[in-house]
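[job 4471] stage=fold_predict status=RUNNING
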Amino acid sequence: MANPLIQCKSVRFAVPGTVILDDINVSVEKGELVFIAGKSGCGKSTLMRFMAGLNYPTGGDVLMRGVSLRRALNHELLANHAQNGYVFQDNALISNLTIFDNIALPLRYNERGTEDEIRRQVEGLLERFELLEDRTNRPAALSLGEAKMAALARAVVTKPSLLFMDEPIASLDRVRVEMVKAIVRELRGGGTPFGII
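[job 4471] inference complete, writing structure tokens
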């Protein structure tokens, strides 16, 4: 593989008395769609968090865009994370922010546009994800499916070059599952690779 976006090199993770991951070697290139499958509790989410640079393994290393996440300087980590999108298993929406502000957060944090540009971009996603009526609600007012869609909207608002999704269609009805599939196909067509559990 030439210039993979992510490389796991002999990744290992153990807790006292238990080895959860051992000698994991995998590479992800631009445009690849990668699924991590396995039984509950086998380390799928843990591996994805290592690949996303959100946690560190107890052994081995992960390289993202050629940068060792274990040895990276703070500015290198921030630059890498700014190019990624994340949908967490529990959605990780910020409870005291409106849905609009949750989705706008990555744009504001990374200073990507004026407030007018951010408003237009976020409202476009709210409409596409059928959340426009919920724009002023807080996460507690959403159904599980709506919260998952809001988390996905927040993950893709920056047009990431890597998208990590942990159980992206859990709690979704058939219509929303099809919406997620369409968005994945569209982003993948643009070369965005994914980590999906």
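[job 4471] summary: Residues 174-189 form the longest helix (16 residues).
[job 4471] exit 0
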